[in-house]
Structure prediction request, 289 residues.
Amino acid sequence: KLCVLFPLTELFKVIGPNQPITAFVDKDALLHCHVSPSMSVVGMEVRWFRASESSAIVHLYQNGRDQDAQQMPAYQGRTEMLRDGFANGSVSLRIRNIRPADDGLYTCFFQLNNVYEETMLELKVIGLGSAPHISVDSYQDGGIQLVCKSTGWYPEPKVLWRDHNGEQLPSLFERKSEKNDGLFEIQTSVIMIKKLKQNMSCTVGNPLFDQEKKASIYISDSFFLRGYPWMVALSVILVILGFFLLLASYFFWKQYTAKGKQNVNEYRVSRVFLKTVIFKNVRKVESVE
Prediction:
């Protein structure tokens, strides 16, 4: 005996949300659909599956109970069918601990005997990553290379460098990588030159959700001097040389002063000695006469 399933829209139809459902990573998502006209769905089969493949069962309610054994491994232990609205034809599926892999289209499927209807809805997963971290990487091209890094974003985030006036600056490079958990890490850099007044900011944002995270940095003049170590070394050498020159000048001045005093003393001693000799000779001459 052949059993054929066919849709009968005159009996009921399935209605889902007309806007995508959004959910944050590591939080819960609640998917809704209902039959119209309103009727009890307690005796129906209610199936949630990924729209790309009907056998990819996210959750199955059949014969009055949940059929967990038929779930995809990725959803086992993470789903719950809320039955509060079954009497009125309303069905909600809770998915716990949302992951980036949960992003996409889902099908809500109802079957009553040989009659079935379904609708599709979209789940958009949002991952708000960490606050950006700015670090000084190196000195090049007459400026300082700054690197901005942030992790834990989904989908791929957008990133902007801005100066103190809020003007956007071009990135030196930008690298985005997807981690094993499906979240994205972003790393970008910019060259900061001294005339930019040393104020910079890095802003990372989710393209689907109007929320950004921002970090700022202030670079003092001393950082730019470090970019030219030969200038610093030359300044230190000149200071040291100046100190030694002053020290040497003082030493020679002391020597010269001491020598001058010594010469004066020697001159005085020699004059006294000469006077003594002359005086003795004069006395001798006088005594002879």
